[in-house]
C-alpha cells in the first residue's frame, strides 16, 4: 500500500539533535578540523584589538569563514552568510548550533582591514611547515611559474593619467593621491612596468596592470608560485601587478621557499622567461643548478636574427681584449654598458662588408656588434648545466606539474580577484594556496590511515603504526628484499629514512605490500 506524507508541522522543541552526528565521518571539513589548528590566530591578532568596547566575533571563526568562502568558491560574502544556516556541516565546522546568530558579512571585510595580509601569510606558512613535518616536502628542487589573475575592475575604469580632465573630477584627484602614495612606497617603480601602465590606471583598482594576453588588453594581477615536486606542495607565493616580469621574482621565491621549509634549494626549474642573465648568475652565487632554458638562446635564429651567427660562435681573446669572428676578423672594444654589465665589441665596417660570410653574420650597416658579459665564464657554466639530460627532463616535467597546480586552484577561484587592491589579492592567494596544500595533507593522512588499518586491525597497534614505531622497525629489517615495497612505504612515513638498514628477512609486511 502506498504511503502518503502528512502535512509537515514544525516542532517547537527539538531534542537529541547533535550536529556531530549529522556530519558524515569522511566529510572533508571533518578532516580539515582534525588537521588544521585555527586557534593560532588568537596570538597573531591579540594586539589588533583593544581592551574595552564591543566583543568581536572570535578570530578563529572569522578565519574559518574566509576558509569556507574559498573552499566552496562562494560567489560573495553576503551569499556565504545567507547559506550558513542552511548547511549543517558549515555550522558544525564553525562551532555553531542551530540557534547560533550568524555574523554580518561586513565582519569579514573589517577583519581583513584590521589584521592585514601578514596574518594570512603566517597561516599559509604554518600549513607549509606542517607539510614539511609530515614528510610531503623534499625541498632540494623547486618548480617556479606564474599565472595571471583577472582584476575585479572593468576596462571602462581605465583613465589617462596625463589628461587634464582628471582634475575636473574628485575621483581622479583621489586616484592621483593613491598613486602617489604607492610611488613613495616603491620609489624606483616596478622593474618592468610598460609605458601604457605609466600613462594609464584604473580608477576602480589602481594596483592592477593593463596586460594584453591573447585578445584585447585587460586588467590583471599576477601570482608567482614555487612548488615542491615530491607531493606538489606550494611552498612560496606572491602576487604582483600583472605587468611585472616574472623573472624578477624568482630569487624572492627561492628565499621564501628556504625560509618556509628550512631547507636549502639545490635546483630550480622554470621556463625560458626566467632564463635571464641575472637569474643565472644569482643561482651560480647560491650554488643552485638552474634547469632553465637560456632566454637569449631561445631568441636566436628567430625573426631578424634567423640565419645569423650566434654570439657563441665568436671567440674571446683575453690577450688583446678582442672577439674573433668565424671569418677570423677581430672585433674591437667599443664601449662598456653599465646597466647590462657587458662590453660591446664591434667589427670594422670595411672588414664586415668585404667578408664572404657577411650575409650570415650581420645586416647592420655599421658592422657586426657582439656583447660579452663581465661574468661570462660563470654564465657559460650555468648554461651548460641547464642543457644536461636531467635538466631537460625537469623542464619537460615542469609544464605538466605547474599546470596541474594552477588548474587545481581554479576550483577555488584563484584566477579571479575577489577583492580590489594588491594586499587583498595577496590574502586571496595565501588562502587558496593553503587550501591546496591542506588537500594534499588530507590525501596523505587518509592513505596513511588506510595502510595502518590494513596492516594492523588492532587499535593499539594501529596507533603505534601511525606514530612510526612499528613501521620503522619492520622496514629497517626488510628494506633490501623489498625495495619496491619500501619505496612506497617511504612516501607514507618520513621517519623511516633516518634509521639504519639491517637484517633482511621476508615476513608479513613484505607479503602484505
Describe this structure in words.
With 513 residues, the protein is α+β, with helices and mostly antiparallel strands. It is built from 22 helices and 13 strands. A hairpin with a 4-residue loop joins strand 11 and strand 12. The protein is elongated, with a radius of gyration of 30 Å. The two termini are 53 Å apart. The relative contact order is 0.10.
**Roughly what fraction of the amino acids lie in strands?**
5-15%
Mean pLDDT: 81
The CA-CA distance between the termini, in Å, is 53 Å
Shape: elongated
**What low-confidence regions span 5 or more consecutive residues with pLDDT below 50?**
187-193, 468-513
Outline:
The protein has 22 helices and 13 strands. By secondary structure, the protein is an alpha+beta fold. Strands 1, 4, 5, 6, 7 and 8 form a six-stranded mixed β-sheet that branches.
Keywords:
five-stranded antiparallel β-sheet; single chain; 513 residues; disordered C terminus; 44% helix; alpha+beta
Ordered list of secondary-structure elements with their pairings:
Blueprint: H1 19-22, H2 28-35, H3 41-45, H4 59-71, H5 77-83, H6 88-94, H7 106-115, H8 117-134, E1 141-150, E2 158-160, H9 170-185, H10 195-199, E3 200-202, E4 209-211, E5 218-228, E6 233-241, H11 250-261, E7 267-269, H12 277-285, E8 289-291, H13 295-298, E9 315-317, E10 322-324, E11 330-337, E12 342-346, H14 349-353, H15 358-361, E13 369-373, H16 376-385, H17 389-410, H18 422-455, H19 459-466, H20 469-478, H21 483-492, H22 508-512
Parallel strand pairs: 1-7, 7-8
Antiparallel strand pairs: 1-5, 2-3, 4-5, 5-6, 9-10, 10-11, 11-12, 12-13
Helix pairs in contact: 2-18, 4-18, 8-18, 12-16, 18-19
Amino acid at each position: 500500500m502506498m504511503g502518503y506524507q502528512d502535512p509537515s508541522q514544525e516542532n517547537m522543541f527539538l531534542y537529541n539533535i547533535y550536529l556531530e552526528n549529522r556530519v558524515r565521518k569522511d566529510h572533508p571539513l571533518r578532516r580539515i578540523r582534525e588537521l588544521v589548528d585555527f586557534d593560532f590566530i588568537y596570538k597573531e591578532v591579540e594586539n589588533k584589538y583593544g581592551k574595552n568596547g564591543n566583543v568581536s566575533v572570535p578570530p578563529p571563526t572569522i578565519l574559518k569563514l574566509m576558509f569556507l568562502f574559498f573552499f566552496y568558491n562562494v560567489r560573495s560574502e553576503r551569499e556565504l552568510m545567507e547559506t550558513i544556516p542552511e548547511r549543517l556541516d558549515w555550522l558544525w565546522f564553525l562551532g555553531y548550533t542551530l540557534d547560533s546568530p550568524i555574523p554580518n558579512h561586513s565582519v569579514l571585510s573589517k577583519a581583513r582591514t584590521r589584521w592585514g595580509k601578514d596574518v594570512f601569510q603566517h597561516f599559509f606558512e604554518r600549513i607549509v611547515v606542517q607539510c614539511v613535518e609530515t614528510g610531503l616536502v623534499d625541498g632540494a628542487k623547486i618548480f617556479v611559474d606564474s599565472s595571471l589573475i583577472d582584476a575585479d575592475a572593468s576596462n571602462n575604469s581605465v583613465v589617462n593619467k596625463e589628461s587634464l580632465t582628471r582634475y575636473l573630477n574628485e575621483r581622479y584627484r583621489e586616484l592621483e593621491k593613491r598613486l602617489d602614495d604607492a610611488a613613495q612606497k616603491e620609489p624606483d617603480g616596478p622593474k618592468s612596468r610598460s609605458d601604457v601602465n605609466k600613462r594609464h590606471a584604473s580608477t576602480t583598482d589602481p594596483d592592477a596592470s593593463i596586460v594584453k594576453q591573447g585578445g584585447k588588453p585587460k586588467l590583471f594581477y599576477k601570482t608567482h608560485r614555487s612548488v615542491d615536486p615530491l607531493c606538489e606542495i606550494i611552498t612560496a607565493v606572491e602576487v604582483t601587478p600583472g605587468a611585472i616580469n616574472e623573472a624578477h621574482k624568482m630569487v624572492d621565491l627561492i628565499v621564501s621557499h628556504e625560509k618556509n621549509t628550512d631547507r636549502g634549494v639545490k635546483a630550480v626549474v622554470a621556463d625560458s622567461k626566467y632564463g635571464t642573465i641575472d637569474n643565472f648568475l644569482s643561482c651560480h652565487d647560491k650554488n643552485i643548478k638552474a634547469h632553465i632554458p637560456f632566454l637569449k638562446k631561445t631568441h636566436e635564429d628567430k625573426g631578424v636574427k634567423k640565419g645569423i651567427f650566434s654570439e657563441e660562435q665568436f671567440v674571446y681573446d683575453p690577450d688583446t681584449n678582442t672577439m674573433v669572428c668565424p671569418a677570423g676578423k677581430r672585433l674591437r672594444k667599443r664601449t662598456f654598458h653599465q646597466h647590462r654589465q657587458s662590453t660591446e665589441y664591434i667589427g670594422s665596417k670595411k672588414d664586415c662588408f668585404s667578408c664572404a660570410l657577411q650575409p650570415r653574420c650581420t645586416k647592420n650597416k655599421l658592422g657586426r656588434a657582439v656583447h660579452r658579459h663581465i661574468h661570462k665564464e660563470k654564465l657559460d657554466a650555468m648554461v651548460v648545466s641547464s642543457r644536461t639530460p636531467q635538466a631537460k627532463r625537469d623542464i619537460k616535467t615542469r609544464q605538466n606539474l605547474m599546470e596541474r597546480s594552477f588548474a587545481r586552484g581554479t576550483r577555488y577561484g584563484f584566477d579571479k580577484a575577489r577583492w580590489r587592491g594588491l594586499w587583498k589579492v595577496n590574502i586571496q592567494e595565501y588562502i587558496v594556496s593553503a587550501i591546496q596544500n591542506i588537500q594534499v595533507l588530507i590525501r596523505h593522512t587518509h592513505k596513511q590511515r588506510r595502510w595502518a588499518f590494513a596492516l594492523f586491525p588492532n587499535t593499539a597497534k594501529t596507533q603505534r603504526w601511525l606514530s612510526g614505531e612499528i613501521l620503522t622497525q619492520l622496514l629497517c629489517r626488510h628494506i633490501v628484499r623489498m625495495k619496491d615495497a619500501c619505496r612506497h612505504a617511504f612516501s607514507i612515513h618520513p621517519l623511516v629514512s633516518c634509521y639504519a638498514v639491517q637484517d633482511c628477512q621476508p615476513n608479513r609486511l613484505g607479503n602484505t605490500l
